[in-house]
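Fold it.
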Amino acid sequence: MSDLVAIFEYQFFRHALFAAVLTSILAAMVGTYIVSRKIVFIGGGITHASFGGIGLAYYMGMNPFAGAAVFAILTALGIEWISGKGKVREDSAIAILWSLGMAMGIIFVFMTPGYTPNLMSFLFGNILSVGRSDLILLLAFCIFLLIFFAIFFRPVLYTAFDPEFAKTKGIPVSLFRYVMSVIMALAIVLSIRTVGIILVLSMFTVPQVTAMLFTRNFARIMPLSALWGITGSVIGLMASYILDIPTGAAIIFFLTFQFLFIKILMILRDSVKRKQKAD
């Protein structure tokens, strides 16, 4: 226990803890929209397509996360346009952009002169390397999202669940969907440092699905998913230190464990209630 308390004396661990909390809050807001609109597959396409931007940025000697952000935004806007006006099936377009982004990333990394960069931190995350500037960026984006949802909550809600009704209310549905696509892309890229490309989608779905075990209200899912996200992330961070295992994988494991544990408890509770009624 003393060793666990002593770890908080290290700045890198405090930064990792703050990053886990902020990423959970960020994922709660954006992930609720993703899960409610049933576009989880789109989130996966954006996530993996961003790898092409990382590879291109390495090849050009730029910041890899800047490249990932550009590719993620272009992919998100492209998918939204295709789903609205394109003549290609949405799932086909996502699959094409998903595989194209990964392929481009691998090609550009291979073509990069010198030593091949270590991509493990991008694929599986490296939350222990989060710095002060990363935390400031995460915090600023969280504050922006809180303000955005506070002002535009109803338009976002209507465009997510009933776009036809939103149009009758004079809400520019296409504009809000494009804006939310950009927000999704940026949120995903900012979360890559925490759990990596391979696992980041779980941060935007598992806590939300756990919250939906308790409520289907959009406004209530957000804080509940933030709660479950923070709980699972902090436990995963602690477990990764104690067991000396990859942090990103530990976080996703405990987020999933939370969901399964609560789901089993609810099934048992319902079973007992049915038995009591039968008696």
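The longest helix spans residues 247-278.
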